[in-house]
Amino acid sequence: MDQVDVLSPEVKHRMEQVAIGVFRDQIALRNKELAEERAILLREMDKQFGQVWQAIGALTEAQKRTEQRVNELTEAQKRTEQRVDGLTEAQKRIEERLERLEVTMQALAEAQQRTEQRVNELAEAQKRTEERLERLEATVQALIEAQQRTEQRVNELAEAQKRTEQRVNELTEAQKRTEQRVNELVEAQKRTEEAVAAMSKQLGQLSRRFGLEVEVDAEEILYDVLTKKGYRFLSEPEAVVVDGEADIVAQVETLQGERFWVLVEVKGRLRRAETGEWLAQLKNPSYLDMLRSKGITSPYLPYAFGLRVYEGVLPLAESTGLGVLDWHGERLPPRPWTGKRGD
């Protein structure tokens, strides 16, 4: 008889409590370190945003002086006033783009918060967490460099605005040179819009990368859970598109030789509504027919994975036989599905 079997349930329970306490202390220490790193990063971002707003404030004041100067032009400068009106409209479009940029940066800040939350939740897989943090640091460094380029661009626009003011002062005697200068400002505005479009594209790529990492986490947790339960993987986990996408599909075999196809729906936030939609799809005859057409036949082991599982999901899943996974592992085991009405 092994030594572990000799221990009484009370001793085993005590040992488990001690292990849990040590594990929680490690998590608390790691959370504190991450909080400090986050605070440093936030202070740096606040400083950089302060510099950007200072430069924008200087541009706004310069624009006001430009409008005041244009109002002083003689009636003979009608074409100049029309051109300045065009510049005012361009300035409004710039302000609108800056507002959209603020919304984008807010979305980026929320994405950063979700990333930090993911790092806290993956404390059990320390090695994988550190690798992702290295990639995150590289991404943050790229954002810092992009921010520096944005500040440099704003400074260039401020210098261009100063030159524009000087040019307007000379317009009372040289209308032709003023119109030429306005054309140069229009070209500068086009380049600014192209730079903002490029930044929006980078933010979209960052969002897609986050979605792919969630699916990779789900694959690793699924593999760990089923391997510990004695299952052997007969195929690599992959995504299958059948009238919608099953995020993870893999065939496994039990120690007794039974074979199942594992179907996993992956969500960052798993709520009762998403769970109900996944259950409805699993019961859809046309969806099951399309699975079978790709060689994915019953019986099935259906799972729903979420980094955060919300209230109401587990009771619904338990009543229908749906398994639930989160970053801890298996919250609820599935019951085999045959794809028939009685499941």
Describe this structure in words.
- Strands 1, 2, 3, 4, 5, 6 and 7 form a seven-stranded mixed sheet that branches.
- A hairpin with a 5-residue loop joins strand 3 and strand 4.
- The chain has eight helices and seven strands.
- It folds into two domains: 210 residues, no CATH class; 104 residues, Trna Endonuclease, Chain: A, domain 1 (3-Layer(aba) Sandwich).
- About 4% of the residues have low confidence.
- By secondary structure, it is α/β, with parallel strands linked by helices.
Which labels suit this protein?
343 residues; alpha/beta; Trna Endonuclease, Chain: A, domain 1; seven-stranded mixed beta sheet; 69% helix
Summarize model confidence as the mean pLDDT: 80
Q: In sequence order, what are the helices and strands, one letter per element?
A: HHHHHEEEEHHEHEE
The fraction of residues assigned to DSSP E strands is 5-15%
What is the CA-atom radius of gyration, in angstroms? 30 Å
Tally of contiguous helical segments: 8
Q: How would you classify the helix and strand content by structural class?
A: alpha/beta
How helix-rich are the residues, as a percent range? 55-70%
| Contiguous runs where pLDDT drops below 50 for at least 5 residues | 195-200, 202-210
The total domain count is 2
Shape: elongated
Q: For the terminal residues, how far apart are their CA atoms? A: 42 Å
